[in-house]
Amino acid sequence: MEVQKKPLKIYIQDIFRAKNTIENKYIYELFGMKFKNIMIQGVVTDAYNKMNKSINLEISDATGSVKVYYDSTKNNSNLNNDIVKDLSHELPKIYAYNNDNSTIMSSMFNMMLEKKENVLNFVEGDYVCIVGDIFVEDVSNNRMVSAFHCNHTSIERDIVWMEELRYIYEKFYLWNKVSEESKALQNT
Length: 188
Fold this sequence. Notes:
The chain has 188 residues and is of the alpha+beta class. Helix content is 37%, strand content 31%. The chain is built from four helices and nine strands.
């Protein structure tokens, strides 16, 4: 079974249009492509159930909205606590040797700490880009996204995203589907 290796960039409405495959209920199919991971972008319309390491969001774009569960511990770019401890012990040693780059290293370390602490800093109106998997919630039987990567973006990036998606849909997703349908018509 050939499955998309990178996240499939889609509009939010297509989360609900994708069909489960027969082989695996976690693999979806859309436009003749099988995939597991998706990438969506939109505006946070609601942020709730914020815990230490997780948060629930509702994300909207021009085509619809979806609920997202984001667990920051599943993010591949997280800093390990041991690394942070090592860096915090080594930084004073760098200052002791009057290293010319010590102020740069210190500011970079502070930015890393700030990023680590503000992982769940999402509020209504923020623009976000999310990578995750589609899943069906047991209680309400609704499709949601289980996110493992969630980044802040901007309105400019959101506009570029929508134009990029329009191009991808026309050039690759829909064009492949049209050519497949025309081949089927020619064969009949």
